[in-house]
Amino acid sequence: MAFGKGHHLHLVDGSAFIFRAYHALPPLTRKSDGLPVGAVSGFVNMLWKMIQDNKGPDAPTHAAVVFDKGSITFRNHLYDQYKANRDEMPEELRPQIPLTREATRAFNIACLEEEGFEADDIIATLACRAREAGGRVTIISSDKDLMQLVGGGVEMFDAMKNVRIDREGVEAKFGVGPERVVDVQALAGDSVDNVPGAPGIGIKTAALLINEFGDLETLLERAEDVPQPKRRQTLIEHAEQIRLSKKLVQLDCDMELSYDLDSLEVVEPVADDLLAFLTAMEFRTIVRRVSDELGKEAPAIPEEAPETVEPEAQADFPETYEWVRDEAALEAWIAKAHARGYVAVDTETTALNEMQALLVGVSLAVAPGEACYVPLAHKTNPEADLFATDALAEGQIPMARALELLKPLLEDPSVLKIGQNIKYDAKILARNGIDIAPVDDTMLLSYAMHAGLHGHGMDVLSERYLGHVPIPIKSLIGTGKSQITFDGVAVDKAVNYAAEDADITIRLWQAFKPQLHRARVTTVYETLERPLIPVLARMEMAGIEVDRETLSRMSGAFAQKMAGLEEEIRELAGEDFKVGSPKQLGEILFDKLGLPGGKKGKTGAYGTGADILEDLATEHELPGRVLDWRQVSKLKSTYTDALQEKIDPATGRVHTSYSIAGANTGRLASTDPNLQNIPVRTEEGRRIREAFVAPAGRTLVSLDYSQIELRILAHIAGIEELKQAFREGQDIHALTASEMFGVPMEEMTPEIRRQAKAINFGVIYGISGFGLARNLRIPREEAQGFIDRYFERFPGIKGYMDDTIRFAKDRGHVETLFGRKINTPEINAKGPGAGFARRAAINAPIQGTAADVIRRAMIRMEAATASLPATMLLQVHDELIFEVDEGSEDALIAVAREVMEGAAMPAVDLSVPLEVDAGQGRSWAEAH
DNA sequence: GTACTCACG
DNA sequence: GACGTACGTGAGTACG
């Protein structure tokens, strides 16, 4: 039966698909030979998704994927500048073009292209013919040039946004119906395609004119009647150029084609052909998906070749290591360590939490391959121990005696102890009466040199720098419910695992230590990383008192409030659902209640973030209630409930753990629990800080840097006005507002100041019009206007940004004022990642310098406050929290403030003063 | 295990 | 030819 009524033709804009896939995906290559295949992969995935999404009653009966062919088309003969400003096709994309044709054929879909024509013309011709035959057409593309085809059974579908575009969609975009789209385009022109149009006339004005005069020809003939003199003159002067533009944007609906619509009938792919293509491309995931769908067994793809490692780095690791069974053997190892002057140390324990973990054994390494394990608290094999006596396994030195032997070595100032994350071991040992010193830490060596390149855990480092995959801990203790603690591991197995860790550590140290100087980060490591280890270890062990009663009471109140809100939400929704499920909430909001808003993300789930719900709150009551519920739920689950669990039964306090090498910029990260994100911004949340208290006779003191990042920005970028303002103690946001908007300081309003404040923060983050617009909830153009004016007013800031990007592109890293290097491997990448990398590069020196400053303060703080009855407990990026005996608060504040304000000196003499605000009280809520 | 959401500076 | 974007974190919950 010939194509006609009841038939449905799908036309895919293949070239658009390819470009989109190319830019959306990282540069993927085929494992076996390095052929770039990222765009092919994305293209195939999009095709597959399209096929899966279009099953059912509305499935296409006919389909084709249409491509551009050649870069010279008939339009270039009309106008030689057509698409002249288009970039060359990227090098990696070129070889992928023929593969996308192959992919299309592998799916058994018609693959159309015509020399001298654009894909759009083929699409236009086929769409017109299908319409004339009485069938329906869906054009899968978001290209506005195709919108002229919509109507009379022809629609478009934007596969990226998942929206259909019909007549109304076209009118929304162009202000006119599809049949007048070319007229509007002819007037407005198109900078992307280099269609000239009429200068000074954009889509809005064009639509206005066309709607008033009916069509383009009438408009041009009656141009004299246009009331506005500027427009009138433009239309008269550029009439020919406008007519030419119309020819350029008008699609050719009447191409001669060697095939007819019937030849485009949908046929099922031949499973073997399709899988053969996908297998040859080595697309593992999609091969699996397609095989599942087609009920075929997935063909094998050869496993990728192992990463090549420098031969000399492929060190030989022993199969087994020495099990130290008695005192004599241990003494021999201790002697070796003394003789060397350094030793790698690693402790094995029963838990990751250093405050609760019990020591199970110690491993030592003095040279690559020369390592041992000293088991101390392994239990007998439970299978052999029928009576579960918890007896100790044989071949272990008594704990107390072993520690007695180890203590002099580990505390010997002439022997360097090397660890991987040695803060952990230091805390374990401290709880066993040993103050390990001096130390080196391979994790921190790596962090100083490689921040931004990769993580700094032992597994990553070993694989990357030694070409060796360590024995996974899971192979010994298992996972999930059946996981055991290390003291339950059989000693012979534990020996090989534990000694290997020490072996790896000493090899990493030998690899890293000589590089430190070459990388010019010796000072960073020695003044900002290593000295922080004992400081943080003590802070973590000190912990902070948290009042369980307060939290428990709050939990109860929150539970009641949540129940009430759930009831209200249920009534507003008209049904019961899990408020905590974004998926269910999205369905209620958008499907059931029909509120405006769209899908997003790879999963196709509706977004229900706070910003979206806030926008919806004007439409319906439910979103506001959900926001309230979310806030309370967060406070309860993350804080009032979870924090109670974290109170150490032995100390009655909460002990966080800081990771020194967690954040790329030099900031610390706090985990288990995270005490750097205790609520403060809302009144209800802030009350959680009431549970953080000082014990009887003590007071909590909090000191925080005022505007430290802006001050550092003012210094680095050398902005005299800002520096002056900081010196005079002015309100910096008000000053910015005054400079930008020309409002005298006396007439400043909170609203204008708020906007300036947002801009100041935006600058630190590597500002974008989009981001500022979203933050301030203003149109993007307006936000961009603010930014332009800001850069105009403070050209030094723009200069700093450009210089920083330049530096990063040339050197592959950026630096803080103290020499910390943050690598920026993505800075020369293309695609959306580039913007990310640029903003991160702008932010890193500012955030990183501030992090360095407070690190220096912390390192000096202990000596400065040694004579005071005070303990440093917490760090929250720009804030330090202390506990001090009542009566000594002011003395502490004076000393600590001096240390903090002078922390940059003498290494860096900032041209702006650092200022520190202080507070004190019974609780953190009062002190802050 | 991943995605989403939300707490902090 | 088009996307998606403020910087840096950690943790709890839902869901496949």
Structure, described:
This protein has 928 residues and is an alpha/beta fold. It folds into four domains: 257 residues, 5'-nuclease (Rossmann fold, 3-Layer(aba) Sandwich); 203 residues, Ribonuclease H-like superfamily/Ribonuclease H (Nucleotidyltransferase, domain 5, 2-Layer Sandwich), CATH 3.30.420; 135 residues, 5' to 3' exonuclease, C-terminal subdomain (DNA polymerase, domain 1, Orthogonal Bundle), CATH 1.10.150.20; 76 residues, Alpha-Beta Plaits (2-Layer Sandwich). It contains 37 helices and 23 strands. Strand 19 and strand 20 form a beta hairpin. The chain is globular and about 100 Å long. About 1% of the residues have low confidence. The protein binds a DNA duplex (9 and 16 nucleotides) through helix 1, helix 24, helix 26, strand 16 and helix 31. Single-chain monomer with multiple functions. This is DNA polymerase I. Belongs to the DNA polymerase type-A family.
Estimate the strand proportion.
5-15%
Query: Helix count?
Result: 37
CATH topology of the largest domain, by name, is Rossmann fold
What is the CATH superfamily classification of the largest domain?
5'-nuclease
CATH class group of the largest domain: Alpha Beta
- What would you call the shape? globular
Oligomer: single chain
The end-to-end span amounts to 79 Å
The chain-level mean pLDDT equals 90
Tally of individual domains? 4
Rounded to an integer, what's the Rg over CA atoms? 34 Å
Major β-sheet profile = 6 strands, mixed
The level of helicity is 40-55%
Number of strands: 23
* Estimated structural class: alpha/beta
Please give the order of strands in the largest beta sheet.
3-2-1-4-5-6
Unreliable stretches covering 5 or more consecutive residues:
304-313
CATH architecture type of the largest domain = 3-Layer(aba) Sandwich
